[in-house]
């Protein structure tokens, strides 16, 4: 079980559902949320400002299509400016879109380990957790 995850999605209902499924699946002890990429980056900025990077979420579930800073913009800024500070964070894209262009663009972001086009389920979370832990072991 991960200590903390972040779900970034502009749809309040989907945020609530994701939070509930993550809890039911015992995927993480704590789930925090943001409604756009900018708010998500503010969470990380606050951790840096408070010298508390150890309290960062280990995993991010990210929607791509949001008003304000969308998921693509978040990935670009996070990959460029934050991965050195938070090197172990991984991302799963949560999107209703199954656009092949999106899938191909994800190659640019090695922190993305999964693309989920369906609602979260306990089975998907088990698969993601195994993949996450395998990647962490390969870094050590």
Largest sheet: 5 strands, parallel
CATH homology-level superfamily:
Response regulator
Number of helices: 5
Q: Tell me the CATH topology.
A: Rossmann fold
How many angstroms does the end-to-end distance come to? 18 Å
Spatial strand arrangement across the major sheet: 2-1-3-4-5
Percentage beta strand = 15-25%
Average pLDDT works out at: 90
Low-confidence stretches: none
- Text of the CATH class: Alpha Beta
Roughly what percent helix?
Answer: 40-55%
The total of beta strands comes to: 5
Order of helices and strands: EHEHEHEHEH
- What does the radius of gyration come to? 14 Å
CATH architecture: 3-Layer(aba) Sandwich
Helix/strand structural class: alpha/beta
The outline comes out as: globular
User: How many discrete structural domains?
Assistant: 1
Brief account:
The protein is an alpha/beta fold.
Question: How does this model look, in words?
Answer:
Helix content is 44%, strand content 20%. It is globular. By secondary structure, the chain is of the alpha/beta class. It has helices at 12-24, 37-49, 71-81, 100-105, 122-139; strands spanning 2-8, 28-34, 59-62, 90-94, 112-116. The two termini are 18 Å apart. It has one domain (2-139): 3-Layer(aba) Sandwich (Rossmann fold).
């Amino acid at each position: 079980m991960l200590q903390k995850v972040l779900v970034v999605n502009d749809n309040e209902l989907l945020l609530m559902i994701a939070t509930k499924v993550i809890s039911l699946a015992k995927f993480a002890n704590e789930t925090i949320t943001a409604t756009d990429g900018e708010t998500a980056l503010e969470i990380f900025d606050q951790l840096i400002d408070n010298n508390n990077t150890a309290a960062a979420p280990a995993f991010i579930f990210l929607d791509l299509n949001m008003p304000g800073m969308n998921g693509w913009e978040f990935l670009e800024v996070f990959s460029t400016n934050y991965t050195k500070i938070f090197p172990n964070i991984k991302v799963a894209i949560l999107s209703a879109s199954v656009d092949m262009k999106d899938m191909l663009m994800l190659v640019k972001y090695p922190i993305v380990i999964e693309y989920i086009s369906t609602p979260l389920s306990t089975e998907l979370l088990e698969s993601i957790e195994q993949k996450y832990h395998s990647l962490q072991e390969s870094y050590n």
